[in-house]
Amino acid sequence: MGIQQRALMGGILVALMAPVAGTWLVLRGMTFFGDAFMHGVLPGIAAAVLFGFSPMLGAALAALVMVVGLEVVRRQTALREDAGIGLLFVGMLALGVVMVSKTPSYAGSITSILFGDALGITPQDLRTQAVIATLVIGLSIVLHRPLITMALHEGKAAALGMNPRLANGLLLAMIAMSVIGSYRTVGTLLVFGLMVGPAATASLFARSVRQMMVLAVTIALFSVVIGLVVSYHLSTAASATMGLVPVALFFILLTVQQIVVNVRRRGVAHA
Amino acid sequence: MPETSQEVDTPHAVEATDITLAHGTFVALAKSSCHIPAGRVTAVIGPNGSGKSTFLNSVTGLIVPVGGTLAVLGQRPVDARPRVSYVLQNVEAPVDLPLTVRETVAMGRYASLGWFRRLRSTDRDAIDAALERMRIADLAHRHLHELSGGQRHRVLVAQGLAQEHDILILDEPLAGLDVVSAEVIDGIVHDTGDSRTGDRRTVIHTTHDLSEAAAADHVILMGGRVVAEGPPDEVLLEEHLVEAFGTRGLHPPVD
After folding, report:
1. How large is the greatest C-alpha to C-alpha distance in chain A, in angstroms?
2. What PANTHER family does the entry give (chain B) (predicted)?
3. pTM for this structure?
4. Under a CB-based contact definition with an 8 Å cutoff, are residues B200 and B193 in contact?
């Protein structure tokens, strides 16, 4: 496979897993948390690059620090949860950059972690991504009932014995895995675009959770292909272009939806 | 039928002994004892903040008493959970949640199916029956955000009915409803099943409304603690009501 094909394969794998995790973030109203969480794993990945251990392990450790930190803020203060999320988000991002700045090739490393390096994907990266994508999709199937019940009401989910604490923990693992499986291709900063962008767009049209996921994955696949083609012809950064397309699509489709709704309403008024 | 003869042959569905319920350092229900007779309708009445909802949350095991003992169907509340169906107050479904009425009602079956077991024909029958009883079968494929407030509340009650249960708990089931929804839900509140077949279930509901409480078999009056409990005509007396509703002492210190 050539460089471009590997970039495309990497993008496709991201498009298969990120929107699945993103759908749950949107349904649970946790997108801000998800965003912060994604940047929060940066120091873990940075430490792994710096000390030469598995980025997976590093990200998992950083995720754990985030969760414990949020729990401390929630228990010890009267601050609302978003304050804690915002605080940890900035702190972890800064810590990550501080750690990376100790490496000899500072600028190169930080750019590739934050913004990805789609054209630098290796066959080994692709194999890891494929395994992670399978795990993410598998977890989403396993967690379907608890997560959908929690999206309706967390207390009701607990009363139904859906074990919301365990489900929440596994959802975090699912998000962390999606970030780890995606950052090589699109970067930790931009993975959010492919995770939440397609899911948010799909929620404008979907009539069921399954439909929402299928639509989100389709939009993400489209974004990856369009992003790569555009970046190839305009010589723009491949990862950033891939991250930009779904967000642009959201606003375009939102406008289309609003127009359709208005036209229908006018039709009803004239009938 | 006289209260005493019933209480001898029916064991208590819920037995609370000296329980204290708190959210952090805030005591919602000071040390109190009360019971809920099995196979009857119990109304828990009291003003806002009197501890009613907190008490229901403890019966369903969502919060654990900081003191005292609480037995539900002779078990710890958490262990009794699969047999207790809890209809929450005013669940505002997120607008973008792509769930149909039927899918929402089906969640009631998760209590017995867990995360993985598939819906079988008995589950589907229970869902259909619940939809029929709440008169929302024609809305089965609508989305939650396409319903009126009253219809949405009937969906949540149907979700509670779809779950197999010995105890049905409804938190303020009649607050702010349209006439049709109130009538349908009131029918559920006062239906404890057939006494001849022995197929009886316990209903617990909370209310602000004195006439609604008077229609129950057993009343627990709350005002930061259990002020009185027993048959409606013994509990709904002026002296008790003034104590629970008319004074500012909702949270008197623990003895």
Report:
1. 70
2. IRON TRANSPORT SYSTEM ATP-BINDING PROTEIN HI_0361-RELATED, METAL TRANSPORT SYSTEM ATP-BINDING PROTEIN TM_0124-RELATED
3. 0.86
4. yes
Select from A156, A203, A28, A183 the least CA-distant residue to A100. A183
Which positions in chain A touch B80 (Cβ < 8 Å)? Answer: none
β-strand partners of B21? B29
Distance from CA of B92 to the nearest CA of A (A): 8
Residues forming beta bridges with residue B36, ordered by sequence position: B14
- CA-CA distance, B33 to B19, in Å (whole number)? 6
Rounded CA-CA distance A19/B23 in Å is 37
Helix ranges restricted to H, chain A: 3-27, 31-40, 42-51, 55-76, 81-100, 106-115, 123-142, 144-152, 154-159, 164-203, 209-234, 238-270
How do residues B216-255 score in pLDDT, each as one tens digit? 999 999 999 999 999 999 998 888 888 888 754 445 444 4
What tokens were used for B164? 């197999």
Residue contact B94–A149, C-beta within 8 A: no
Task: Report the distance separating Cα B4 and Cα B250, nearest Å.
Answer: 30
Q: Could you tell me where the DSSP H helices lie in A52-143? A: 55-76, 81-100, 106-115, 123-142
CB-based contact A96:A183 (threshold 8 Å): no
The predicted pLDDT at position B28 comes to 93
Q: Is A155 on the interface with B (CB under 8 A)?
A: yes
- Contacts with B91 from chain A: Cβ below 8 Å: 152-153, 156
Q: Supply the ipTM of this predicted assembly.
A: 0.85
Asked if the B3-246 domain carries CATH number 3.40.50.300, the reply is yes
Q: What does the block give as tokens for B72?
A: 């539900």
Domains identified in chain A and CATH numbers: 3-270 (1.10.3470.10)
Chain A: nearest CA to B139, how far in angstroms? 15
pLDDT per residue as tens digits for the range A92-132: 888 888 888 877 776 677 778 788 888 888 999 899 999 99
CA separation for the pair B220, B207 (Å, rounded): 11
Q: Measured between beta carbons, which residues in chain B are less than 8 angstroms from residue A146?
A: 115
> Alpha carbon of A256 to those of A193, A215, A247: distances in Å?
20, 16, 14
Q: For A220-263, how does the pLDDT look when each residue is reduced to its tens digit (9 = 90+)? A: 999 999 999 998 899 888 888 888 899 899 999 999 988 888 88
